[in-house]
Design brief:
With about 350 residues, the chain is an alpha+beta fold. The protein has one domain: paralog of FGE (formylglycine-generating enzyme), CATH 3.90.1580. About 10% of the residues lie in helices and about 15% in strands. The chain has 5 helices and 14 strands. The strands form 5 sheets. Strands 12-11-9-13 form a 4-stranded mixed β-sheet. The protein is globular and about 55 Å long. The relative contact order is 0.23.
Length: about 350
């Protein structure tokens, strides 16, 4: 198990100089394909946009660079517990968290410790140093998608909450079953912006328009006291907060969302060498300077644990990362489907 949800994993990306704004060329959006719309999905017309963020604490999200994506379909919401349950019922799929841990990373672990389980946010009783994620994350035997906080929890009343405790390969398995795939990082960000280019948030430039929270994030003192000013201390139902300009829900906060791309901290530097990059698929391999020996996949969108005291990565241009076989109770996913002119590669 690796440091899923840690600042080293999602938030502590260092500082570098900001880059001048990228003004993408004007292109005609892709028309919606002929035929019936995809149920529960929204057509994204595609186009060019400025990908990334010039936030001073998000070095891996810089420089901002011009990207073009073809039109595609994307799920209106994160995959819910009810939807994932239908997949499991149809396929008898067993998630990573429900399997006995195995592999070289567990060499030397006592056999009695090698039991199914996952990582759960466990707030401390009082203020704690933010340099050690073990102060608020714990490996919990028996935690999985059916029991997000451990054996004492269940999904009653959470059918319309996003499914969590799903590793990357679990998300890929669901997407294939549904005839879909995971979004590329570029597709996800284009969709999250809802037609607003170079805005700080999915809804614009102001964090709390008219004093109202527009996403499920963490208020109070992180990590010990969540005042729940937005109404939630954990996940919220998928349509609780207003949709963005494309009609998509929870493209900021609630749960992190897996993307198909490998994560490299220097990937945007590579992309910025081209005037416009078309349909980037991610790097060929992964490198995270915080954990050089651990390959990771991109996550986007932030979660209910994002706080201005620790992690503000619910901004669309920011980036997250996760070890593909690690699941947590603040990460889920949504799927996409290529349009008639879209990407052909599966996840």
């Amino acid at each position: 198990m690796h440091s899923a949800g840690a600042q080293s994993q999602h938030c502590d990306m260092g500082i570098s100089a900001a880059r001048a704004a990228v003004i993408p060329a004007s292109v005609a959006p892709a028309p919606k394909p002929n035929g019936a719309p995809q149920r529960g999905m929204v057509w994204i017309p595609g186009g060019e946009f400025s990908m990334g963020s010039d936030h001073p604490d998000m070095a891996d999200a810089r420089p901002v660079h011009a990207v073009h994506v073809d039109g595609f379909w994307i799920d209106e919401t994160d995959v819910t517990n009810a939807q994932f349950a239908k997949f499991v019922q149809a396929t008898h799929y067993v998630t990573v968290a429900e399997r006995k841990p195995s592999g070289p990373e567990f060499k030397g672990v006592p056999p009695e410790k090698l039991v199914p389980g996952s990582v759960v946010f466990t707030p401390p009783s009082g203020p704690t140093a933010l340099d050690n994620v073990a102060n608020w994350w714990a490996w919990v035997p028996g935690a999985n998608w059916r029991h997000p906080q451990g054996p004492g929890s269940d999904l009653r009343g959470r059918e319309d909450h996003p499914v969590v405790q799903v590793a990357w390969e679990d998300a890929v398995a669901y997407a294939r079953w549904a005839g879909k795939r995971l979004p590329t990082e570029a597709e996800w960000e284009f969709a999250a912006r809802g037609g607003l280019d170079r805005q700080t948030y999915t809804w614009g430039s102001e964090l709390k328009p008219s004093g109202k929270w527009l996403a499920n994030t963490f208020q109070g003192h992180f990590p010990d006291r969540n005042t729940a000013e937005d109404g939630y201390t954990g996940t919220s139902p998928v349509r609780t907060f207003a949709a963005n300009g494309y009609g998509l829900y929870d493209m900021a906060g609630n749960v992190w969302q897996w993307c198909s791309d490998w994560y490299r901290a220097d990937y945007y530097e590579q992309l910025s060498k081209a005037r416009v990059t078309s349909n980037p698929q991610g790097p060929a391999d992964s490198f995270d300077p915080d954990e050089p020996g651990v390959a990771k996949r991109v996550q986007k969108g932030g979660s209910f644990l994002c706080s201005d005291q620790y992690c503000t990565r619910y901004m669309p241009g920011s980036r997250g990362k996760g070890e593909p076989r690690t699941s947590t109770n603040h990460a889920g996913f949504r799927c996409v489907r290529s349009g008639s002119a879209g990407l052909r590669r599966a996840s």
